[in-house]
């Protein structure tokens, strides 16, 4: 039994050894009559190199398989949410998609809010000009007329923000979830890998 942390370290070493064997092994050659090459020795070395590769790969695959099985069943809690280790690792890899959506929502929310505010300001300017014109015509214009003109004009030129998702809340919620996950995931996975034991047959 070894911990997942130890298994992951061994995987790295095995990968280096497998790559080294693949890059340096010589399995075939041409032997000329004048060569000092010992055919028996070459055969032994080629066979040993290949067997080393097969053995290292078998060990690598056994460890990888044990880690995959462990990751599919071992649970971790991140930000109050329970994940399998496999799910947490996958979310860590794919979190950029969530960040892209968060950016999209934030950009749209900011742009819509700014457009709405520009519209409101522009309409208020138009009301002010209208009132200036109307008041100039009739010095007796009373407060009720001013209020009625203002209300009618603004109602006819009203703008509404369509926000079915309550985007500000959704942005805050997603930002919090992403920050919590990214802050805690590495520690939680490291802690889990250190205490989770796997069996290698």
Provide the gyration radius in Å.
35 Å
Give the overall shape, derived from the CA principal axes: elongated
SSE string, helix = H, strand = E?
Answer: EHHEEHHHE
Can you list the strand order of the major beta sheet? 1-4
Largest sheet composition: 2 strands, antiparallel
Number of strands: 4
User: Count the helices. How many?
Assistant: 5
What value does the average pLDDT take? 91
Q: Name the poorly predicted regions.
A: none
Strand content: 5-15%
Q: What is the domain tally?
A: 2
Category from helices, strands and their pairing: mainly alpha
Alpha carbon gap, first and last residue: 9 Å
Helix content: over 70%
Walk me through the topology.
Elements: E1 2-3, H1 4-24, H2 39-73, E2 75-78, E3 81-84, H3 85-137, H4 143-156, H5 167-195, E4 197-198
Antiparallel strand pairs: 1-4, 2-3
Helix pairs in contact: 1-2, 3-4, 3-5
What is shown here, in short?
With 201 residues, the chain is mainly α. Helix content is 76%, strand content 6%.
Task: Give a verbal description of the structure.
By secondary structure, the protein is mainly alpha-helical. It is 76% helix and 6% strand. It is built from five helices and four strands. Strands 1-4 form a two-stranded antiparallel ribbon. Strands 2-3 form a two-stranded antiparallel sheet. The longest helix is centred in the middle third of the chain and has 53 residues, at 85-137.
List keywords for this structure.
mainly alpha; elongated; 201 residues; two-stranded antiparallel sheet; 4 strands; single chain; 2 domains
